[in-house]
Write a structure and sequence with these properties.
Layout lengths: L1 H19 L27 H10 L5 E4 L6 H8 L3 E6 L2 H10 L5 H29 L8 H5 L5 H4 L2 H15 L4 H14 L25 H20 L7 E5 L13 E6 L9 H4 L1 H7 L3 H7 L10 H19 E12 L2 E2 L2 E2 L2 H11 L2 E9 L12 E8 L1
The structure holds S-adenosylmethionine.
Length: 393
């Protein structure tokens, strides 16, 4: 018995030594291969992080959990490496993107997407003709009830011609019966919404730019997004295994739909306390896709950032999540948490230290901390981030 546990410790030591010897700055790494580049998502981690951790701490056919799954980076890597995976996120947009990124689109669905684009093109030609007539004082290019059903804020963020094309595209997507095809097209649609709006460029807070240049050829931009995604999914299909990926739009603080000690490895990347207000950054997609920005903001850990109790709520919520992670993970199995230290209220919050101490208190053994980004600014505002490695006892 003693020999067995000594062997385990030796193997564990070798794994950690191997990880520590790798270059984690990954400055020149290509990060948008396969389906990883489908849709922008703030504070994604680069796929090399889960890839290395999954290959070190799990085996083929194991069940992996990412309980803050975001845009599904862990899930894509799990599927390529033949691991089954569960992704959990409270954000409906995250769940949609993760689902589409891990779905291999087969030939018949690809054909349906091509037919969709051809048919959409004729609707757009018709719309553009009506828009010209409308500028000559004829009737509006689109019935006003369709426009009235849009989220009331949308008209402030787009030029009128852009709204018309987006409405035609979205209406046609809604009519697609095949959910796989519909979700694929919705992700392509959502990926465009910021770049064709009147926002200031770049990511981060959305602000209306009153001098935004006119945007046109929205259909062509949408078609290009679809074509790029089709190319990516074709690459992905050559490496994706048949492993099972399940996504839950649920709260990480309450993982009651996952059995005790049923997970072989946890690889996750929690929110950075108030640093990335997802509901605000993603509001254009949330509005267009019919999700509630305010419901999301309330349920996100670290979501409502301007409250005096933001740090206390974050620490309490993270503790609840860690307790759930401990419950669902098998004993002697590993849990890796990637986290950065945000600047909030004028000071840097050492979330790595908090998570480490908290995890130790509830019974995890802390094995190693790998830091990245200290010398090269790879993570924007966050700069340095940490991969914390724990064993469940
Ligand atoms: C740092 S991001 C994860 C990014 C992910 N690693 C990727 O590559 O896309 C953190 C995620 O935690 C999610 N989140 C915040 N509060 C949550 C909660 N209560 N339950 C589940 N997910 C939550 C956010 O929606 C966000 O997608």
């Amino acid at each position: 018995m003693k020999l067995r546990s000594e062997n385990l410790l030796q193997t564990e030591l070798a794994k950690i030594k191997h990880l520590c010897a790798l270059d984690w700055e990954l400055i020149t790494a290509h990060t948008v291969y396969y389906t990883h580049g489908y849709h922008p998502y703030s504070a994604k981690y680069i796929p090399q992080i889960p890839n290395r951790l999954i290959s070190t701490f799990s085996d083929k056919n194991d069940l992996i959990l990412d309980n803050f799954v975001g845009s599904g980076t862990t899930l894509v890597e799990s599927k390529v490496m033949g691991r089954n995976a569960i992704g959990v996120d409270i954000n409906p947009l995250a769940c949609l993107i993760s689902k589409v990124k891990t779905t291999v689109i087969k030939k018949p669905a690809m054909r349906e997407i091509s037919h969709f684009l051809v048919s959409l093109h004729s609707d757009i030609v018709h719309l553009r003709r009506n828009t010209t007539l409308s500028s000559l004082g004829e009737k509006k290019p689109i019935d006003s009830p369709v426009i009235e059903k849009l989220h009331p804020n949308i008209p402030k963020w787009y030029h009128e011609n852009v709204i018309y094309e987006l409405v035609v595209i979205k209406t046609k997507i809604n009519a697609v019966r095949n959910t796989e095809v519909r979700d694929f097209l919705l992700v392509a649609f959502s990926s465009l919404l910021r770049s064709v709006s009147n926002t200031t460029s770049g990511f981060g807070n959305l602000m209306i730019n009153k001098n935004a240049p006119p945007k046109n050829r929205i259909f062509e931009k949408f078609s290009l997004a679809v074509a790029n995604m089709l190319q990516s999914v074709a690459d992905f299909s050559t490496v994706a295994t048949n492993s099972k990926v399940t996504i839950f739009k649920q709260d990480s603080r309450k993982l009651e739909f996952i059995n005790d000690e049923s997970i072989d490895f946890i690889c996750t990347h929690p929110p950075y306390m108030a640093a990335v207000p997802y509901a605000e950054y993603q509001k254009l997609s949330l509005w267009w896709l019919g999700y509630s920005q305010y419901d999301l903001e309330k349920s996100l850990i670290g979501g409502r950032r301007s409250r005096p109790d933001t740090p206390q709520r974050f620490f309490r919520d993270m503790e609840m999540s860690l307790l759930e992670m401990k419950r669902v993970l098998r004993k002697k199995k590993y849990c890796c948490i990637t986290i950065g230290n945000p600047i909030y209220g004028g000071k840097t919050w050492k979330l790595n230290e908090f998570i480490k101490q908290n995890a130790i208190q509830i019974g995890f053994t802390h094995l190693k901390e790998i830091s990245r980004g200290k010398y090269h600014s790879t993570m924007g505002k966050m700069k340095e981030e940490f991969v914390l490695i724990f064993r469940n006892e």
